[in-house]
Amino acid sequence: MKDRSAKERIRDFMEVPLGYTPEEAIEEAKRCIKCKNPQCVKGCPVEVDIPAFIDHVAKGDFESAAKRIKETNSLPAICGRVCPQEEQCELKCIIGVKGEPVAIGTLERFVADWERENILLKAPKRGEFKKPKSLGIKAAVLGSGPAGLTCAGDLARMGYGVTIFESLHVTGGVLTYGIPEFRLPKAIVNLEVEYVKSLGVEIITDMLIGNVLTIEELLKEYKAIFVGSGAGLPKFMGIPGENLLGVYSANEYLFRVNMMKAWKFPDYLTPVKIGRRVAVIGGGNVAMDSARVSLRLGAEEVYILYRRTQDEMPARIEEIKRAVEEGIIFKILTLPIKYHANEEGWVSEAECIQMELGEPDSSGRRRPIPIKNSEFRIQIDTVVVAIGNSPNPLIPHRTPGLKVEKWGGIIITKEGLTSIPGVYAGGDIVRGSATVISAMGDGKIAARAIDKHLNL
Ligand SMILES: Cc1cc2nc3c(=O)[nH]c(=O)nc-3n(C[C@H](O)[C@H](O)[C@H](O)COP(=O)(O)OP(=O)(O)OC[C@H]3O[C@@H](n4cnc5c(N)ncnc54)[C@H](O)[C@@H]3O)c2cc1C
Ligand code: SF4
Questions:
Q1: Which of 25, 159, 318, 394 could form a disulfide with 132 if both were Cys (CB 3.0 to 4.6 A apart)?
Q2: Pocket flag, ligand 2, residue 35 (CB < 6 Å)
């Protein structure tokens, strides 16, 4: 799949990859050898019948391909854009043993985009799902991120009456307020949410569960509850100067850009002040997004400060590659230890220490060790701390008997059941910061378990 040129794309927020043409999609699909025991499916947490949908693409029947994907995946246009296929279905593809695996993710994206452009936007009714007979049983889902949307969609398909309670005024979770427009256009997220609604799911926004209503109260009306409230609490390093002006958590930074439309200034009068030089701390997808957003907002120099090397970065390889192409400066083996301020209290320098790699730690990655007397300073105007998030403690605090890990994640069984009967959980509230597809997989597992529990 081709990208827009780096020179052209760094000054706007339009999508970077261009997607396949129908001819390219058919050509790529023909590389699939339709394995009898397809390993790719085992690598897909939502169990898409990959060879079947690719076969439809190879025959040029894109509508049937879309239907096939949607049998198990309610959010294909999103998955096709942000899922780490290189670590999942494509990693297991047999063709990948000797060469490039089949580009399953790009094909999924193509099919979803084709359906949107040729069916949903033209004749939405044709894309709608035939509602199943209602079972007359109500289930509640907390949070409208990928975990909640998937669980809700699957339960609705089984015939349950599903209501999603979302604390924000908008739906989609991180897909809407975190991942930037140039990687995941919000029109696409909105349309996928509309699809879930077309399955019969009701969504009530501005409902902060734990405050407005508690789980105990909801259980009086709903027979089962799925908690998919994510991990929206930013982590900081706890170093001196982190409370200076100009130091953001990535959460706040991206939220302001996405939700307050800072990227549309001056049409929207809610800009983010970033200055000339921005330092982003971290090496994951959130760090890459923050750095690339900074560049697009007009920063002249954007640094990624990361304490290990590029090889250990958890971000998707293709996003690292794009960040490098766009001119983001990677300062690896670099750990900030203190921020300094100018006379007005704004951050002006990051004091860092050089690191080296030692033996592997519990994560399997080589441990970064500070090199004595290697401190140095970098001049900066803005810092974005992107070192991870933990679950917001509100729901656990307001739900007596709900067991959580020390770090705040809700404890569940293999089926997604929490310590409270009838209450299930999944996604980032269980795993900490993870991935869209793992959140969707959890939603799916919980929907099945809820069905089993309610049908006893
Ligand atoms: C900037 C960024 C980039 C990322 N890039 C990628 C990527 O490229 N690929 C990938 O796979 N993953 C990526 N991720 C991670 C991925 O987005 C998350 O793992 C995923 O969104 C988790 O889904 P979730 O449904 O568990 O939670 P969320 O998406 O966080 O959704 C939770 C929802 O619950 C709502 N909520 C919270 N508390 C309450 C409450 N008390 N009552 C009601 N509602 C509540 C929230 O408002 C939110 O809408 C990225 C994350 C970020 C922040
Ligand atoms: S493993 Fe690869 S070649 Fe085999 S069915 Fe899946 S996508 Fe096709």
A1: 159
A2: yes
Nearest to 224 by CA among 453, 449, 422: 422
- Given ligand 1 and candidates 82, 149, 174, which is best to mutate, with the most ligand atoms within 8 Å of its CB? 174
How close is the Cα of 424 to the center of ligand 2, in Å? Answer: 33
Verify whether ligand 1 is closer than 6 Å to residue 244 (CB atom).
no
Residue 322: DSSP 8-state: H
Establish whether residue 107 lines the binding site of ligand 2, counting it when its CB lies within 6 angstroms of any ligand atom: no
Q: Is 381 in the pocket of ligand 1 (CB under 6 A)?
A: no
Q: What is the pLDDT of residue 125?
A: 57
Q: Containing H/E element for 141?
A: strand 138-142
With a 6 A CB cut-off, is 44 part of the ligand 2 pocket?
A: no
pLDDT tens-digit series, residues 224-239: 999 999 999 999 999 9
Ligand 2 contacts CB of residue 52 (under 6 A): no
* pLDDT attached to residue 175: 96
CA separation (Å) from 337 to 190, 207, 271?
A: 41, 39, 29
Collect the ranges in the chain with pLDDT lower than 50: none
Per-residue pLDDT of 9-51, as tens digits, reads 998 999 999 999 999 999 999 999 999 999 999 999 889 999 9
pTM higher than the cut 0.85: yes
Q: Is 181 in the pocket of ligand 1 (CB under 6 A)?
A: no
Q: For position 456, what pLDDT does the model report?
A: 62
Assess contact for 110 and 19: CB atoms under 8 A.
yes
Q: Are 379 and 277 in contact (CB under 8 A)?
A: yes
Asked if residue 331 lies in contact with residue 340, where contact means CB atoms within 8 angstroms, the answer is no
**What sign for the dihedral angle of Cα 455, 50, 178, 15?**
negative
What pLDDT is recorded for position 206?
A: 97
DSSP character for 115?
A: H
Per-residue pLDDT at 6:
95
Q: Which ligand is nearest to the CA of 55?
A: 2
* 384 secondary structure, DSSP code: E
- For residue 363, give both structure tokens: 């994560």
